[in-house]
Amino acid sequence: MLSSTELKERCQNLADVDEAICAEYEAIGRIYDTLGVTMDEVADLMFSNHVMCLLKRIQTGEYVPPMDEGLFSELTDRARSMAEELVGGAFKKAGQEPDKTEVLMLATHLDVAMAKKGDQGNE
């Protein structure tokens, strides 16, 4: 994952993100580093941006519209679990239950990265 500073430099829409969100983003980055998922440069930028934007949505409580979980039926249990691990704490700190659609959308990035690496296990 990109650092919050690098992400804010590369994505102008994130230039005004406050320090609390940046601190939470960096905490998620430390968890991400333990997962063993590697992404190419483009995927890393998209994933990092997604995480930061999700943190902004958690702060406002304005999530993407719910989507049928069946659309995410091919996601591995491992990617689902990783996504929950990454952002579950941010939802909890905000006093909210994790939004299923948001977590599943994040899991999609992880599953694609693992598929590219050939590491799709359902651990």
Structure summary:
It is globular, with a radius of gyration of 14 Å. The protein has helices at residues 4-10, 19-35, 41-60, 77-93, 100-117.
Please tag this protein with its features.
single chain, 123 residues, mainly alpha, 5 helices
- The count of β-strands is 0
Report the portion of residues in β strands.
Answer: under 5%
* Biggest beta sheet attributes: none
> Measured on Cα atoms, how large is the radius of gyration?
14 Å
Helix share bin: 55-70%
Q: Report the oligomer.
A: single chain
Task: Quote the distance from N terminus to C terminus.
Answer: 22 Å
Structural class: mainly alpha
**In sequence order, what are the helices and strands, one letter per element?**
HHHHH
SS field, number of helical segments: 5
Average pLDDT, rounded to a whole number, is 92
Molecular structure report:
The chain is mainly α. Helices cover 64% and strands 0% of the residues. The longest helix is centred in the middle third of the chain and has 20 residues, at 41-60. The chain is built from five helices and no strands. The protein is globular and about 35 Å long.
